[in-house]
Design a protein that fits this description.
single chain; about 950 residues; mainly alpha; five-stranded parallel β-sheet; two-stranded antiparallel ribbon; 47 helices; globular
């Protein structure tokens, strides 16, 4: 472990910490048995946190756990994910395919040029978190794994975000996470990590000072004999801090100040006073040669990631001579064995040496380190850490940024932004290399989520007559930033200005024209959007430009699907997705595929939808941003409509885990959960979901197309709370006036049966006929079973015709849309009962209640039962009216498949690949299985599957 212990161990034991080590040992035993644990050791400096972790790690290794460890230090410019990626040895194991995949996502090449979310300012993007959590789960599949993490108070916030996820999932993995930190101000995320007991698999150990007996034992061990009264009194001033006591005795021994008393005890002369802890810790430095101290000062400045080779280059000293110097430093107890890196035995020593170096010299050393690392081809983020703390010459900084700005922006956009800003301030605008800096600056702002600033920077650079070739790139930054922050009008104006500019190449004008159609569509001007897209499509076809053609086809497909959802709309969407992915940005390809998948969902082409979503899973996980929650939302909708509500909730949970960075997508995901909660009679849960994410003003991103979900959830909740009038008013207004920029009649066609039902209840027959006509028109265009079912149901309700309703039931069942079929069974049963056909009505009621029961829709059961009781019809069968909530029978089909794969020893990422679902969704399913079966580990799941197989019971 980097860094050394601050408490002496004797014959393999730590004085005064037996209880803490015993508890950590029990956590390791639990992990070996398959039930992971998280433990945190918290205490002030010097109380022995590092020593406890080192001893616990050694014990865990002896017990058979694979141990990875890391120690954070206090860098001035922390790089996102630096701590956790170092702990997981990502860069040190390039031949490991699992780590290589995580390293690829960490570099972030697929995210270059994408607008970042505002909450990603700290670099904690969802794609990288997902990759690192997936890597840990893969490692756990190879055997029980332990992570020992010291000095977490210095860890970068992105690494802490990964640890939050790992701690939440330890209960379902053979994973032991043990962290240590000081209770420092500003360590709020770390403090929440250690103190929030999300699951029962969480232990907090707060180290207290050593008691008098332990202090006496420690003094005896350090001195070789019992301490005398004066020495004991001096040690009392250390307040039970073992580091303080150890350094006190070491300093006294170096000064030969401990003498043997008359009673053979170790004692000191009268009148000796207790020095401060810092003075004691650094006392040993007095005995080192000046050349050793000089090297140690340089190491203190360069930081924990400094290697011997890098130190030799910075100090300009032969590595043979340096090794001799470092050996003396290690023998003196200043440095500790930290593998390839140079680590101090205690942070206090490093701080003392660091503070002794004058500020200008520290800056010079950082600059020299940056130059050496750049010459050796080191990762740009390592060079950037030193540049941010140094005083590089403008020439060096600008030259380095010219080659490294793009890579640094994908890996650490905030660091890139600070460096490019400094280069702009220091550089000479007349120098040749200066011209590209405004572009790098705007892209870094865009990637950091500073959208308005990126737009302004790009506009400012455009106003200054940029270098040839930069105008087009800068205009695209303006367009992307404006569009991403909800201003398609500004994006449209910039696209049109670009089309008129003589400095824009002809092919780029085609692309700008195609994107202007996207802006028009977002503004709700479907007619003009279609006309512009058609013109752009023709020109793009002639130019054979996939980027422009994809944008044009996307608009044409979306417009057609809204207006006339038919085979031609689907074919247009398919044409867009058939374009070669390398002709466009990965994000554009993802958007096209997800849009096509949603078309399939709406037309009940389930197999095609599943295949499309399976194809985008891995790219979405690598890209992150809006695409991960969008993918999970699409999967949730597919599962909800086909009646797999628990699977839908698993997708919602996974999407929310990533969608916190995209609030509008979280709003849509929560709306799906709210709809299910209302149906299942959990109105407080529904209310909480709907209140959790307020609507965004001027939302024109992809989430705008899902604003119907909160509307439907809210209306359904109104009706469940007995306010059907409010539900009707909300739905009717949205249908007539639209949602945001989108016309309600086109995007709310699926609401027509509910609108007809509510309108008829209020005697609004004219409105009911209008809604039924809209449903009929949509069904005629698409021919889809779900749309036909809506049309038949509307007409059946309007005309009180049970035969039309029976036809609607047939369509819904073939789609399949089980909830819609059950609603229509209830409608038909009520009409049949009024006509005196009670037996037929009872049969349909039973069918409806069976479906509701399978879905867990207890509110719908009550509604249907009440409606039919009013017409003297009661349920014919007497089967259980509620779904099983616990035990094997409570598992869904997907959960049983996951359980089988767990029994085969598969990791969550491996199960995800087999089932073509996301790793985070698998994790949610595993948690659900453990809860339903009242189990605590994957081992128990595997044992239950094996037991059922051996007893002849099918796991399915």
């Amino acid at each position: 472990m980097a860094g050394g212990g601050c408490m002496t161990s004797f014959e393999g034991r730590l004085l005064g910490r037996a209880a803490e080590l015993a508890r950590l040992s029990r956590l390791a035993e639990s992990t070996l048995a398959g039930e992971g644990q998280a433990g945190f050791v918290v205490g002030e400096a010097g109380l022995g946190k590092t020593a406890v972790l080192e001893q616990a790690a050694a014990d865990a290794r002896r017990m058979g756990l694979r141990v990875l460890h890391g120690r954070a230090q206090s860098p001035a410019q922390p790089c996102p994910f630096a701590f956790i990626s170092s702990c997981l040895r990502i860069e040190e194991s390039p031949s490991d395919d699992r780590r290589a995949r995580a390293a690829e996502v960490l570099r972030g090449d697929a995210r270059y040029g994408l607008p970042g979310a505002r909450s990603e300012a700290a670099g904690a993007d969802a794609a990288t978190i997902e990759a690192l959590v997936g890597l840990v789960e893969d490692l756990c599949a190879q055997g029980p794994l332990a992570l020992f993490l010291d000095d977490l108070q210095w860890a970068d916030s992105a690494s802490v975000a990964v640890l939050h996820k790992l701690v939440r999932s330890v209960h379902q993995l053979p994973l032991l996470v043990v962290g240590a930190h000081r209770p420092l101000p500003g360590a709020g995320d770390v403090d929440r990590l250690s103190r929030n007991r999300i699951t029962g698999n969480h232990t907090l150990l707060e180290l207290a000072p050593l008691d008098a007996q332990a202090v006496a034992a420690l003094l005896t061990e350090l001195c070789g004999r019992e301490a005398g009264p004066r020495l004991r009194r001096m040690a009392e001033g250390a307040a039970g801090n073992p580091l303080y006591i150890r350094e006190l005795i070491a300093a006294l021994q170096r000064e030969h100040a401990i003498e043997t008393g008359d009673d053979s005890t170790a004692d000191i002369a009268a009148g000796c006073s207790l020095p401060p802890l810092t003075a004691l810790v650094t006392h040993r430095l007095r005995y080192l040669r000046e050349d050793v101290l000089q090297m140690l000062r340089i190491v203190s400045v360069l930081g924990a990631s400094c290697t011997t080779a890098e130190l030799a280059a910075v100090a300009d000293i032969p590595i043979r001579d340096l090794l001799t110097i470092m050996a003396e430093a290690e023998a003196s107890g200043v440095l500790t064995d930290s593998g390839p890196f140079l680590g101090f035995r205690h942070e206090m020593i490093r701080h003392a040496l660091h503070d002794a170096v004058p500020g200008p010299l520290r800056a010079m050393l950082h600059t020299r380190a940056a130059q050496c690392l750049a010459e050796s081809g080191a990762a740009p983020e390592r060079v950037a850490e030193h540049l941010l703390n140094g005083v590089p010459s403008p020439d060096f900084l600008i030259t380095w940024l010219e080659g490294a700005a793009a890579r640094l922006t994908t890996r650490a956009p905030a660091m890139a932004l600070r460096l490019v800003t400094r280069a702009l301030e220091l550089g000479d605008p007349t120098d040749a290399g200066y011209g590209n800096l405004p572009l790098h600056h705007a892209i870094a702002q865009l990637s950091s989520g500073h959208l308005a600033e990126a737009e302004e920077s790009a506009r400012s650079a455009l106003a200054k007559a940029p270098q040839p070739g930069l105008e087009c790139l800068l205009r695209w930054i303006v367009i992307q930033a404006a569009f991403a922050r909800g201003r398609p009008d500004l994006a449209l104006a910039e696209a049109r200005a670009g089309c008129r500019s003589p400095g824009i190449p002809a092919i780029e004008r085609v692309r700008l024209q195609a994107f202007s159609a996207v802006c028009l569509f977002a503004l709700g001007d479907l007619t003009e959007a279609g006309a512009v897209a058609s013109r752009a499509r023709s020109v793009a076809d002639e130019a054979d430009d996939g980027f422009a053609l994809a944008s044009a086809l996307h608009v044409l497909a979306a417009k057609r699907f809204l207006e006339t959802p038919d085979a031609e709309a689907v074919e247009l969407a398919r044409q867009a997705t058939r374009l070669t992915p390398d002709t466009m940005h990965p994000a554009q390809w993802l958007g096209l595929q997800l849009s096509l998948g949603n078309c399939y969902i709406d037309l009940d082409l389930g197999q095609e939808a599943r295949q499309t979503l399976a194809a985008v899973r891995r790219p979405a996980e690598r890209t992150g941003g809006v695409f991960l929650p969008w993918y999970h939302l699409s999967c949730a909708l597919l599962a909800f409509h086909s009646g797999h509500w628990d699977d839908a909730l698993a997708e919602v949970a996974a999407g929310l885990d990533h969608g916190g960075q995209v609030a509008s997508m979280s709003r849509a995901l929560r709306a799906v959960a709210a709809v299910i909660a209302v149906h299942r009679g959990r109105r407080p849960d529904a209310e909480a979901h709907l209140k959790a994410t307020p609507p965004e003003s001027d939302n024109v991103t992809v989430a705008a197309f899902y604003e119907y979900l909160p509307l439907c959830a809210g209306a359904l909740l109104d009706e469940a709370q007995g306010d059907a009038e409010r539900a009707y008013v909300r739905l009717a207004e949205a249908f007539d006036e639209g949602i945001g920029h989108l016309p309600g009649r086109l995007i709310l066609g699926f609401l027509t049966p509910d609108l007809v039902r509510l309108a008829l209840t209020r005697g609004h027959h004219e409105n009911a006929r209008r809604y039924a006509a809209a449903a009929q028109q949509r069904a005629e265009h698409s021919g889809g079973l779900y749309h036909l079912g809506d049309a038949y149901r509307c007409q059946g309700l309007l005309n009180e015709d049970p035969d039309l309703l029976m036809e609607a039931i047939r369509c819904y069942r073939n789609a399949p849309r089980p909830l819609n079929a059950a609603h229509t069974c209830t409608d038909a049963a009520e009409i049949l009962a009024r006509r005196g056909r009670q037996d037929e009505a009872r049969l349909l009621l039973d069918q409806a209640l069976d479906t509701y029961t399978r879905l867990g829709a207890v509110w719908d059961v009550a509604q249907a039962t009440s409606r039919l009781r009013a017409v003297a019809v009661r349920r014919g069968s007497h089967r259980a009216r509620t779904g099983v909530r616990d035990g094997w029978r409570a598992l869904t089909h997907t959960e049983r498949l996951v359980a089988e794969h767990v029994a085969e020893g598969c990791s969550n990422p491996e199960i995800a690949a087999r089932l073509s679902i996301a790793r985070s969704t698998v994790s949610t399913h595993v948690s659900s299985i453990l809860r339903k079966l009242a189990m605590t580990s994957r081992v128990e799941i595997a044992a239950e599957v094996t037991r059922r197989q051996n007893s002849g019971q099918s796991p399915m």
